[in-house]
Structure formats: C-alpha cells, structure tokens
Amino acid sequence: MTAQKVERIRQLLTEALAPVELDVIDEGHKHAGHSGEGKGHFFARIVSPAFAGKNPIQRHRLVYQALGDMMPDGIHALSIDAKAPGE
Q: Which residues form a coiled coil (predicted)?
C-alpha cells in the first residue's frame, strides 16, 4: 500500500510540476506509535522550473495543490524540499 502511495505522489507531482528532479521517500518508520501511523508520512524533494520566483510558502502550496485529495485522506505528514533549478 505504501509503495502505491509513493508512486501516486510521484505521478501527481510529475504531472503538475514537471520536475527535473524528484525523490519521494516513505518515512512512516520514523513515526511508529504516532497518532497518524498508517496514514502516511513522506518526504518529497522536488526541483522544478515551476518554483522559479516563488517563495517557500508558494512552493508548498503548489505541491499541496498537485496532491489534491491525497493530503487529507492519504497523507498524514509531508516534509517538502522544493527548489527551482540552479538553487
């Protein structure tokens, strides 16, 4: 199930933001016993031209928008490292 979530996150981010680099890592093991356990804890490192000229909050909003319904329903926590190419 988690591998499917990682692949779905990759797919959605790729379709929306056309990244030149993208890593999505399941970090659920770091949250054993946590209230959101089983719902999904992930880290995404994404480098995309879509982030050029945007501040960190705007970049995170683009990521959340790309993930749509996954945020409240399939992802409990998401750490994001969002950069434009060359940063």
A: none
